[in-house]
Amino acid sequence: MFQGPKLRPPMRLLPSSALRRANPLRAAFTLVELLAVIAIISILMAFLLPKIPEVMDATKVTACKKNLSEIHKMIGVYEMKYNRLPNKPGVRFFGSLYSRGAFEQTKTSAMKLTCPGVDVGSLYGIADLEPEEWFADLESVDGSYSSYAGRDTEQFPLKRMSGKEPLVADDNDDGEGNHMTTTNVLYGDGAVNTFELFLERENGNVDPEEEYIIVGPDSNIEDLQKFSLD
Model-level pTM? Predict the structure, then answer.
């Protein structure tokens, strides 16, 4: 008797839950991968987060140096325009660059006359003024108008632009430095030199307990004694 081909029973599909149970190793491996990623991110954060303030400070130190370089250029403009150097002491030494037109009288120019490492909101002399007004009235300007210190031209008058003579510096006022460890100083040849806190401690110019370098007549560093914070 003829028999036709045998038919296979229909294939039964496993439910998704059964499939998940059928591959437990893959699920476990995915969890291990996730834990590994979390561990790597945690390590990176632990390493990088403490560096963020240092990176931000280094950026502000660089911006400060650019400001001081711009101030040097404008001192040259002032000298050509008036055939002499600024003769006011302290903040008015460089404030006169703005009030007498060596700098454009704009917000951008005014911002270059104070250190980017210090919040301008902490400078009470200019708290209620627009930047264009900061240095417009030179006679009212004092140390509360900027976080830079200008040359004390009354005690240390300038006869010419000499590369050895300091002109403008971070003022490190109010019990802390403008930057974490660096103090920038502009010299007559346009160079912006730095004084580092830890090096000056090693040289005996800063007491071990001091957290910043003193600028002004009380400084132990000869060049920094030539500045006035007024």
Answer: 0.80
